[in-house]
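Researcher: I've been going back and forth with a colleague about how ABC transporter domain-containing protein might be arranged in three dimensions. Neither of us has a model we trust, so I'd like an independent prediction. The organism is Photinus pyralis, in case that matters for your notes. Sequence below.
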Amino acid sequence: MHLKPSFKFVDNLGGNLGIILTQSLGLTGILQFVVRQYAEMENAMTSVERVLEYGALEQEKEDESITPPPNWPEHGEIVFDSISLRYSREVLILNNINLLIKPREKIGIVGRTGAGKSSIINALFRLSEFSGSIAIDGIDTKTVPLSELRSKISIIPQQPTIFSGSVRNNLDPFREYSDDILWKTLENVELKDPVNDLPSGLNSIVTEGGANFSIGQRQLVCLARAMLRKNKILVLDEATANVDPKTDLLIQRNVRENFSDCTVLTIAHKLDTVMDSDKILVIDDGKVVEFDHPHVLLQNSDGAFCGMVDQMDKLSAEYLRNVAQMNYANNMTESSRL
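Model: Here is an independent structure prediction for ABC transporter domain-containing protein. You can compare it with whatever you and your colleague have in mind.
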């Protein structure tokens, strides 16, 4: 007995192939979705691991602390006494730094990359352990609670820190100032019109990282924040490195006018930013190489600071020398009046 072959499958070959193809494509889409979800889960778990890692960090050690006077620091005098600092077991980043920064002095800090400029600021904020002592208005910073110390020193970093939230919360996160003071401060840094043009003014939302502001405007927000705090010590850590010349001049002018009674420490690669300072601190290999008025330092043709100026083009070098000389003459005139 012979079985007759079935031609039913052959007759529906086109339809069956279509079903197989569509199901295969659907299965491929499901596999792609699974892979994508797995990758997103991996990214999310990385964030969880980082949060757990940060949560497990040891709390910064506090020496026996005292409560400084409410108006501390009143003058802004800073004394570095035999400061040495190293990271882990590396060589000394700061090597026996001794400095006296008088109240209201404007100090420019210069030096090659890795010389130790930012490490001085780390020591000032007690971000790293160091030997020796730093006294602000006669009080050793190691005896002051960290939160108190850091709240009394304003800093404008190279990369501005902008929070997600309203403009008001970025300027005054603790709601300590009235709207009139906030608007006045924004006017001083020439941000009143840009903020006023936003849909809700001070209550307008700033996106993550301040993406709806330009880099210069973000830096001006940090400047306004520092102006509101009215601390006696201000640190500028390459604050004008990434801004346009107009914003650079605006920041420098505001620092001169609104922080005239404050001690200002300015770390800069651009010498024109610090040429009108009261003193220039030249750091090299973690040591103080020179520390005096820029005009005085430029009289030493073999000095490190003079060498930095001479490396510039002739026109720029001459301009910087004229600025230093003019500032020095003005300082001498004011000293004679006093």
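Researcher: What would you highlight for our discussion?
Model: I'd start with this: The CA atoms of residues 53 and 231 lie 33 Å apart. After that, consider the following. The mean pLDDT is 87.
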